[in-house]
Write a structure and sequence with these properties.
single chain; alpha+beta; Extracellular Endonuclease, Chain A; globular
Length: 283
Amino acid sequence: MSGPAQAQTCSEQFAEGMRPDLVNPKLARQATPLCYAAFALLHSGVSRTPIYAAERLTRSSVAAARAVDRVDDFHDEDALPEAERAHLEDYVRSGFDRGHMAPAGDMPTRAAQAQSFTLANIVPQDRAVNRGLWAAIEESVRRLATARGTLFVVTGPVYAGDSVQAINGRVLVPTQLFKALYDPARGEAGAYLVPNRDDAEWRAVSLAELRGVAGLDVFPGLPDSVKRRAMDLPEPRTYSRGDEAGGPPRGRTREPDTFEAWARNQLHRLARRLWRDLMRAIF
């Protein structure tokens, strides 16, 4: 497994070849750009998480990624200073998942997938969100890239408020997560914004609104008219590999087809909440 390049490279991962602008100057403190085989990121030595991860998804790269079986290989990032990087032990009994910003499921080769498990690409993520809504967003974005041909994607955390939590006293826990998309063929863009908590609901925001929330201009080369209008984002849903591309009607929620389906869904949500509370009480 080869490591990243600490350089201003990876220009192919950025729309118009331009890295996101740090509108909030605080984000620039101890920030290190890293370039990997299939994604680029900017890492913060303050939060010990990525500030953002950038990818260029194509129809062919998504198809190649579907042929790569997932093999978990979380590891410290040796390219970063010891004091500025997260360690595997930081996440032990933290109550949080190790959440990818550039998803393992986007990686078109085994080597690229292994690189995605660097802790430089990871944030502490609520377990229910990571395995439910966020996974559905990631898969829906891959489906959209397959349908559209090419998408530029920038994913990252948001830390809002004066009392942000830290696991092991070192790694900051995001209050929200975003995934911004740009379709260069149609000239439209927008972002998913998701609270980092159980039973979170997503909302679509424009790049202009995201700039105020995250302190980032994720696609600085785009005209203001594109940044002000949020594109029609696909409803997050899970798929099996045999499913055809598509999804339910637009909207934030999908009504179950029957009362029995609704009841099962409610019981599942309650069970997840009780399990989360139990795990946090134990650990």
